Amino acid sequence: MSLWNAAEAAAATHGEACGDWKATGVSIDTRTLQAGDLFVALTDQRDGHDFVAQALKKGAAAALVSRVPEDVAPDAPLLIVPDVLHALEDLGRAARQRMGGRVIAITGSVGKTSTKDMARTALTGQGRIHAAEASYNNHWGVPLTLARMPADTDFAIIEIGMNHPGEIAPLSCMARPHVAMITTVAAAHLEAFGAIEGIAREKGAIFQGLQAIGTAILPEDLPVTGILRDCADAAGAVVVGFGRDGMARLIMARPMEGRLKCRARIAGEMVEFTLQTTGAHFAMNAVGVLAALAAAGADVKQAAARLGDWQPPKGRGALEDIGRFRLIDDAFNANPASLAAGLATLAGLEGGRRVAILGDMLELGPDEIALHRTVAQDPAMESVDLVHMAGPRMRHLYDALPLEKRGDWAADAAELAERAADLVRDGDIVLVKGSKSSRISTVVDALRNYGQTTDLKRGDDECSIG
Prior knowledge:
By secondary structure, the protein is α/β, with parallel strands linked by helices. The chain has 17 helices and 22 strands. A hairpin with a 2-residue loop joins β14 and β15.
């Protein structure tokens, strides 16, 4: 079925269409392009115009360009516009305009992508669902997600992120959600915002895009909840708080055999659900998801039942067995709030030694040293037996920890990964977490390789102490 034809795309972008083509998808990457896609020649680190010929050869229906590349025939199927990114935004707006379903937008300092995936899974069986791929939540990811949205979509889930002030409101206004959810507000991107209050105001800007009488789903138990409520009130939204004491309330989350058995009150209904994770923060986000889906008109009990099919994506807290130890791969990103959640998950697991392997948390601004040192005082640290660390910022945590909890420290993750065989032993439960740019995921890879190819040390073997 056609997603865009030449006339529709030209009208949406005010561009000039060459040829009478029909596109079944939209792509910005020739590596993943499918036959029938409209290839969008964005310019970032490389100029997408350099790949137009390759895209057409691979079967692209047409290419969205601002000029005809030298290696492309003048009569090739093209859509020529003054600015490719602006045209992609126009396509996104046009797709949103023609779609008659309900739109849910999600942002937050932690958990945007996993919450978006959770919502998509929970909606299974309730109509045609469209959601962002991966973490497509920025100035090109949001319009790309919208441009890919079929007109007959029943529920769309749009993830919206930010790195700097002023980014969220325009993206939300483009998506025009009926429901907007904030997972949490935490110390992330402090370099750009200076204080958590600034982050809260930026996250709250998602409510500016809400449709008339839209619903704001926000965490009830934060120090900055008042700021979020002010943002929602300014947008004229119906406010639903979620948390331990919110309108949407988590009543129980009990770990059982590597899962969480949960009970919650959503829109006046008592619902039960199971999550394939032991992270209590996922249970709280699930309550927010169910509140958002209820506000969007979905069947809450059916959605709750489907939550059991959801699994945390790779690098975002999934628990897995690796040889003779268990691994929590949470290496995709980190800030103080998500690290606290990861440590709480580790502390709540029963078994052998609890070992944390931590990489630097980045973009925390002038307080980064203090924020790393403060991790030593996290209540969950009482239950953590050993902490290995990588990176110059984590050196400050190393110095703040009591001697009996200090494991290895390395200047970078690659150096720590080389010592994988000395970091764990038989029966351990291991959490690996750090900012993506710290490359702590290299330790995850090393641990997987080690755990799957060789026996672990047994008995009273000691880990090396840095």
